[in-house]
């Protein structure tokens, strides 16, 4: 490191070669971001103000909307700035802060989806005990723990990233400060950070995904034992929205982080574009099109 210059800022390239499409892309991003914020705020307002919608499942939906506002606000405005200026410079600490909120929102969302699957498990598999177990007070308690766990684990990784030094380059071919390209620019050993990320991903992400699959295996088993087709349809309708959210969210994460590595691509540029498109879908598009459907009062259990 003594012979290298320490980097204090990065250059985010975003999507290059937009040329004549830049105005269209800019207006599209502004429309998507505005619609995402308005739509999720409306969900929060409805869940908070309408008595008929005050139940644990809709409360978790409101928390999920708040999480989507966080991740969209963390990524979309900076992406708009990159499109306007054909790139954006960001200080190392600012990049680390963006990565911190990105990681926290992803972890919080995983926790909330797990809590929602548990809520549906109780509602369908143990309907007689649902109201006594899943009270609003218990739902508040679970939601608080989701946010505490998400921010705490992301803070641990954030502290380790602040200890890194960057001197091998300053260009990040992405539209936000993602972890992988950031670690690639470090000129000191990043094994500690990679181990921490692997542990968090395994213990939190995969375990919670397994818990969701387990909950829905019991839910499916209970639905199939309902004698009438109307009863099966009604039971499935109470969890269909959440199931679609889980499939879309985890599906995009699996494709993004388990996709082939650079070495498997004939052209490294293809890999980078593929990664950026999946990240754009996961951080900008999904928060807009998540299939929320508030559960009416008569379907609480």
Protein topology:
Blueprint: E1 9-12, H1 22-49, H2 56-85, E2 88-91, H3 92-125, H4 127-133, H5 136-162, E3 171-172, H6 179-184, H7 191-224, H8 229-237, H9 240-257, H10 268-289
Parallel strand pairs: 1-3
Antiparallel strand pairs: 1-2
Helix pairs in contact: 1-2, 1-10, 2-3, 2-5, 2-10, 3-4, 3-5, 3-7, 5-7, 9-10
Describe the fold and architecture.
This protein is mostly helical and 301 residues long. It has one domain: Rhodopsin 7-helix transmembrane proteins (Rhopdopsin 7-helix transmembrane proteins, Up-down Bundle), CATH 1.20.1070.10. The chain is 71% helix and 3% strand. Helix 1 packs antiparallel against helix 2, helix 2 crosses helix 10 and helix 3 packs parallel to helix 7. The C terminus is likely disordered. Keywords: Cell membrane, Disulfide bond, G-protein coupled receptor, Glycoprotein, Membrane, Olfaction, Receptor, Sensory transduction, Transducer, Transmembrane, Transmembrane helix. Its main location: membrane. InterPro entries: GPCR_Rhodpsn (IPR000276), GPCR_Rhodpsn_7TM (IPR017452), Olfact_rcpt (IPR000725), Olfactory_GPCR1 (IPR050939).
